[in-house]
Predict the 3D structure of the following.
Amino acid sequence: MNAGTVGLLGALVLLTAWFIWRWYTIEKARWATERSRRPSVADSLIGFVTNFFDTLGIGSFAPTTAVFKLRRRVPDERIPGTLNVGHALPTVAQALIFIALVTIDLRTLVAMIVAAVAGAWLGAGFVSRLPVRGVQAGMGVALLIAALLFVAANLGWMPGGGEALALEGGTLAFAIAANFVLGALMTLGIGLYAPCLVLVSLLGMNPIAAFPIMMGSCAFLMPIGGVRFIEMKRYDLAAALGLALGGIPAVLIAAFVVKSLPIVWLRWLVVVVVTYAAALMLRSATRSAR
């Protein structure tokens, strides 16, 4: 591991410490006085299952959104914030593991991470002020996009990628711009993993290079975007804590114990559930408009 990678991991650790400190200082009064803010076993179980399969490449945002919507666990307008806050710490665990284990050009990795963080910072401020109907419509579209990406993966329509571990010139500039957009969309609940995998594969990179890029991007942007949602109180505290508490051990088990599973049939199940949840979300948006 070179000095640049060590420095990047150190920066991520410091950012994570800042995120935990900010979360605690903002919410400590509510946590101490309102027992309803405590996470339930079901919240932690959702965090465990979604982050377990997230580490194996399924993604966590779409399945979590579907469960929240079907169980009516979190108000629609608070789902984006809850996803970004609750899944932040498990995603940091993923990034620390994959950045350390997978070799990739450091300049490409850092540039794409910075772009995603910038997009998320701007996106979180926008999404946290959206009316309920705007969030519902955006989440409905996000779920449909996620379902289509799952279908494409199962049918072998995803690009195969090349062998490159670095990007140069105009190709790098395009990747930076695209990751900026993906970072902004993360704050609306559109997961970055699948689109980022498609992006790096289309640009001729080895698909394994997508793991430190997508996990590193999310690990840096989610704490920054998450703090904005926390400050605006535009998330569910108990659900977010449950996702974090259940998600961290799930990441460690998936990365170091299980490592891989045949997940094609699981993706088809996710397609069905996510599509149904998208229909419910869009119906809610239509009702809100009326």
The chain has one domain: 3-289. Residues 50 and 270 are 11 Å apart (CA to CA).
